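Posting for a labmate who doesn't have an account.
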Amino acid sequence: MGSRVEMAHAAHFICGDKCAFKRATVVNQKFIVSTVGEFQPNVVKKGLSQQLRARNDLDPIEPLGASPKHLYETMVFKARKSSLKCCPFKMMNGHSLETEQYASAKAAALGHEKLVKKWSRVRR
């Protein structure tokens, strides 16, 4: 498999900071595979830290897609170098090359790795 860089944040979804599940993997310095899930819109930001309210009936995990089963999502984007120290790469644009949705964290983790492997073979 080609080279990869793991970034400790969501690389897509404007509310990615309100997702408990997030991964972003840069593959061969050409593509970003980004997975988000467990979206809780009631996450409150205070300074540099986040406080999550306890999950209960009043604070459910919201779906990311059209189906209530789409609790996790992976998208692939073209990557370009970034001048930020924390994130050496960012999306070239907001056009997804591929999208997958999942109902569980296990399926999302496996799907993320599957797309990392697939896109590590692409040479464009």
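Reply:
Got it, the structure tokens are right above this. The chain has one domain: 4-120.
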